[in-house]
Amino acid sequence: MYDCYLYSSPPPVLTPSPPFLATTHIHSLHLCPSATIFTTLPFCRRATTEFSKKTMPMSFITVSRVDGSKAQETLTSSCIDLISSALGGRVLEFSDEWFAAAENLINPAPPIHKPGVFVPAGAWYDGWETRRHNKAPADWVVIKLGVSSGKVHGFEVDTAFFNGNHAPAVTVEGAFLHCGYPDATTVWEEILPMQKCGPSQRHIWKLSSPTTKAYSHVRLNMFPDGGIARFRLFGTAVPVFPDNPDTIIDLAHVSSGGLAISCSGQHFGTKKDNLLLPGRGKDAGNGWETKRSREPGHVDWVVVKLVCAAKGAPGYIEEVVVDTLHFRGNYPQAVEIYAINSSEQHVTSDANGWELIVPKHPCEADKEHTFPSALLQNVHGKVATHVKMVIIPDGGVKRLRVFGKRAALAGN
C-alpha cells in the first residue's frame, strides 16, 4: 500500500476576512488505493463589496474564436477543464446568484432545459443567473481550480437556454495564491479580455499561446449581469511533486499532468478523461464506456500520457490498477496494458514500440484489479511516457491508476 502525496499545502487557519468567506482547500487527492478526498465547508456566499478593480491588463497574447465543432481538435484533445467540479473545482465567492446558483457553472454535465418549471425566485435555469439592474460594472464569481495550479490555453462560456437574460459580455482574470483565499487585496491578472456573448450558444476562445504563469484561482466577470450555463477553463495542470524522489505517485493522475489523449470511442455520455479523475466517482457516468461491439476480434482502447512526459520526466511503472466500480453487466471481459517510451506528445494506438506490461487478464464487476510489480512484465529498468489500456471486447472502466516514480528524479 502506497502513501498518498498531498498536492497542495495543508489547509490554512480559517480567519474569515470579508468580502471572502474562508473555506478549506481540497488538500488530498486519490493518488493511491488508500487515499481519500478531504473537504469541509463546501459552500460559498454572496459578497458584500463592490466589483474589485484591482486588475492587471493582459499583454502579448491574442485571442481567437473557435467554432464549437472544432473544440475537440483545438482544445479538449490536449487540455483538461481545470475548474470542473469532477476534478475538485470549487466556487468560493460570487457577487450574486438570485435566480440560479453559481456552482452550476462548473458542472461537467451539459446544461439541460426545463421549460415551464418555476421556483420561488423565478424560472428554473441550469446555470448561474443574477438579478437585473446591477449597479456595479459586472457580476462575478471566484473559482478555485481543481488542481494545485494550471496554465490556461482557452475558455468556454456556454449561454445554453439563456435567451433575453444571457450575459452580454465577459472577461476572465487569474491569480496564484500559495495558500489562503482571495480577498480585497488580491491583484487579478486579465487572461481573457472583454468578449461579447450571444444568447443560447457556446462561446469558445483559444489563446495564441498558453499563459506563461500558472494560476490557482480564476474570476469570471459578466457585464453587467445576466445568465451563463457553463464555464470551462481549458489548460494543463502544473503539479507540485514531493521532494523525495522515491515517492510513489500516480503517474497517470490528472493532477500529476496525466492526460487521456485518444481512444477508440466513448459512449453513453461518458468520457475517456474520467479515467484519470480523483476518487472513484459516484456512478458509472463518471467513467469511460464504449458501445457494444458486434464484430469478432473487436477491442477498444485508450492512450494516456503520463506525468510531464513532454518535459523529459517519464516514469518507472511499479503498479497498475484498473477499476470497474459501478460497471456490473457492462464491464470488459478482459484487459491488457501496454507502455511506450516516446518523444512524441500524441502517441497513436498503433505506433511502433508499444510493449505489453499487463498480459490479458479477466475482469470482474465492481472491482479494483490490482497488478503489482510482481505481475508486470517489460517494466524493470524501463521508463514510460505513455500507457495504452485495451479492453476486450468493449465495456466500461471507472479509473486507471499507474503508480510509479518519476524517471528524471528517481533515486536508482
TrEMBL record:
PANTHER family: ALLANTOICASE, INACTIVE ALLANTOICASE-RELATED. It catalyses: allantoate + H2O = (S)-ureidoglycolate + urea. Pathway: Nitrogen metabolism; (S)-allantoin degradation; (S)-ureidoglycolate from allantoate (aminidohydrolase route): step 1/1. GO terms for biological process: allantoin catabolic process; purine nucleobase metabolic process. NCBIfam families: allantoicase. This is allantoicase. It comes from Tuber aestivum (summer truffle). Residues 88-237, 257-406 form the Allantoicase domain. Its EC number is 3.5.3.4. Utilization of purines as secondary nitrogen sources, when primary sources are limiting. It comes from the Eukaryota. Gene3D superfamilies: Galactose-binding domain-like (2.60.120.260). Belongs to the allantoicase family. Pfam families: Allantoicase. The lineage of its organism: Eukaryota, Fungi, Dikarya, Ascomycota, Pezizomycotina. One of its GO terms (molecular function) is allantoicase activity. Keywords: Hydrolase, Purine metabolism. It is an enzyme of class 3 (hydrolase). InterPro entries: Allantoicase, Allantoicase_dom, Galactose-bd-like_sf.
